[in-house]
Amino acid sequence: MLEQTCSIGGCSGEPTTHGLCHKHYMRLYRHGTVEDTRPFGYGSKSNHPLYRTWYSSRKKMCEEWKDFWKFIADIGERPSDKHYVSRRDKNKQYSKENVVWRSKLTEQKEGETEAQYMARYQRIRRAVLPEESRKKGLKRCFGLTLEQYEQMHKEQGGVCAICKKEETATKNRSAEKKNLSVDHCHGKGHIRGLLCARCNTALGLMFDSEEIMSEALNYIRKHKRD
Asked: Is the pTM of this model over 0.70?
């Protein structure tokens, strides 16, 4: 009796399904071909330098990229050690149309703590990518999109909701004017409006207290001179 082997030429594996060994059957099942779709020299996908990138984000991958080797075929090689995969639109899945290679803005210096590195990195990021940093800050701190902020700014005529004046405060180490600050209720958390730095600071120093502000108004009136 002849010993049966896989129907793929040159393979001595024992056939399990449709005349194919387990290895070739799984290739056919996963990729639609019995050919090896892995890049030469990597063997197991866990040996690939981009495996950790794929694995950590696999739940956000499009259906096609649930297959690691399809992800590798589409994404290509990493341009350099400083590059990482990033989504163009953070609200959409990783896909061929929604990813871009970005390079790290800076590396951690020898002797620099993680906190020091992150503080320096954020300063560089704000300087190099001001619009992106602003979008991220508005979303993280207030749940606002840049479009929503611009709409509020337009409705207020570009001035502070309290003093009705344009912002005059400037950014640190720069002559560039700050954007109006987003003011929110510290008790309920809802957005109230856009304020200049002075009015926003004044509210904070008075703890948003109507009583304190009323007393401050009475004080001004009491000592007012014609």
From this structure: no
Q: What is the pLDDT of residue 1?
A: 41
| pLDDT tens sequence across 60-74 | 999 999 988 889 889
Rg of the Cα trace of the chain?
Answer: 29
Once rounded to an integer, what is the mean pLDDT over residues 121-140? 84
Task: Return the pLDDT at 145.
Answer: 92
Compute how many other C-beta atoms are within 10 angstroms of the C-beta atom of residue 153. 14
**Chain length of the chain:** 226
Q: Contact at 8 Å (CB) between 76 and 45? A: no
Identify the pLDDT of residue 38.
62
Which residues fall within 8 angstroms of residue 131, CB to CB, at 6 or more apart? 146
CB atoms within 10 A of CB 11: 15
C-alpha 92/C-alpha 132 separation (Å) is 17
User: How far is the first Cα of the chain from the last one, in angstroms, to the nearest whole number?
Assistant: 119
Rounded mean pLDDT, 24-51: 73
Burial letters 38-70, b for 16+ CB under 10 A, else e:
beeeeeebeebebbebbeebeeebbeebebbbb
Tokens, residue 95:
């896909």
Q: Which domains does the chain show, CATH number per domain? A: 1-37 (no CATH), 38-103 (no CATH), 144-226 (3.40.1800.10)
